[in-house]
Write a structure and sequence with these properties.
The chain has helices spanning 18-38, 42-59, 67-99, 107-122, 125-136, 140-164, 168-176, 181-215, 223-232, 236-264. By secondary structure, it is an all-alpha fold. The radius of gyration is 26 Å and the shape is globular.
C-alpha cells in the first residue's frame, strides 16, 4: 500500500554567493585604483584634520554685521535662479516633445533633439558660466544664461521621460476621431504631464539657487562673488556668514517647494 503521509520537501540550497563576492572585490579594486591614481589617501585625510579644525575656529563666530553688505547680492542670486529656471523651462517644453518617441515619429526631429539634450547635459553649469563670462563679461547676465542652459537640459530630460510614460489610451482615442497633432498634444499629452512638469520646475529652481550661489566664483554675479572675495581676503568669519545665510535661504525654498510638490502630486 502507498503511504498517505506527505512527501518531505526538498532541502533548500544556500544561494551561490560567488557573484556577490566578485562584485565586492571589483568595487574594492575600483576604489583602491581610483584612490591610487588621484593620490587620495587616508593618511592625507588624517593629517589634514587639524587644519580643518583651525579653519572652523577662524569661521566662528560669524561676522553678522556683514549681513548688511550681502543681502542685496543674496537677493540677486535668487533672482538669477528664477530667471534661469523660467527661461530654461520655456525652451525645454518643445524640445522635450520632439525628444519623446511616442509624440515625435520623425527621425529628423527625434534624433537631433536627443543629441542636443545629451550635449547640454554633458557641460556643467560652471563651465557654462565661465564661457558666458568670457562673452558677456562679469555680472549676473552670464549667470542667468548658464542657469538657463542647465535648467533646459535637466527639465527636458525629466519631461520627455514623463511624456513617454503617459497613458496611450486618450492619444489613441483622439487619433481615431481625427484630432490634429496640436490638439493631440494640447488635450492628450499636456494634461497628463502638467503636474510632473511643475514638480520638475520647482526641483530645478531649488538646484539653481544652490548653483547660483557658486557661479559667482567664476564671476557670474550673485553672492558667489562676495564668497570668493572673503575667501581670498582670509575673512573666514564673513565667509561663514555667507554660508549660513545661503543655507537658511535654501532650507526655506526647499521646504516651500516640497509642500507645493506634495499638493501637485
Amino acid at each position: 500500500m502507498k503511504s498517505d503521509s506527505p512527501s518531505k520537501p526538498a532541502p533548500l540550497k544556500k544561494p551561490d554567493r560567488t557573484k556577490t563576492y566578485l562584485t565586492a572585490i571589483f568595487l574594492i579594486l575600483l576604489l583602491w585604483g581610483s584612490a591610487y591614481k588621484t593620490d587620495a589617501t587616508i593618511t592625507q585625510l588624517i593629517t589634514g584634520l587639524p587644519e580643518m579644525g583651525n579653519l572652523l575656529v577662524e569661521m566662528f563666530p560669524p561676522d553678522w554685521s556683514y549681513i548688511d553688505v550681502i543681502w542685496r547680492p543674496m537677493m540677486q542670486t535668487i533672482q538669477m535662479a528664477v530667471l534661469g529656471t523660467t527661461f530654461g523651462a520655456i525652451i525645454a517644453v518643445p524640445v522635450a516633445l520632439f525628444a519623446a518617441g511616442n509624440v515625435t515619429k520623425s527621425v529628423f526631429l527625434y534624433y537631433p533633439a536627443r543629441f542636443i539634450l545629451n550635449l547640454i547635459r554633458t557641460i556643467p553649469d560652471l563651465l557654462f558660466a565661465a564661457v558666458f563670462v568670457a562673452i558677456f563679461g562679469l555680472g549676473p547676465v552670464a549667470g542667468v544664461l548658464a542657469l538657463t542652459f542647465f535648467s533646459f537640459g535637466l527639465i527636458s530630460k525629466l519631461l520627455y521621460e514623463s511624456i513617454e510614460a503617459i497613458d496611450p489610451g486618450p492619444l489613441e482615442a483622439m487619433t481615431a476621431v481625427g484630432a490634429s497633432k496640436l490638439q493631440w498634444i494640447h488635450f492628450g499629452v499636456i494634461p497628463q504631464v502638467m503636474a510632473q512638469f511643475m514638480a520638475y520646475l520647482l526641483y530645478t529652481f531649488e538646484v539653481n539657487v544652490r548653483a547660483a550661489a557658486v557661479l559667482g566664483l567664476v564671476g557670474a554675479g550673485g553672492i558667489g562673488l562676495f564668497l570668493d572675495r572673503t575667501l581670498n581676503q582670509l575673512r573666514y568669519d564673513r565667509a561663514s556668514t555667507i554660508i549660513i545665510a545661503t543655507l537658511i535661504i535654501v532650507l526655506i525654498i526647499d521646504y516651500a517647494s516640497t509642500k507645493i510638490r506634495e499638493r501637485l502630486l
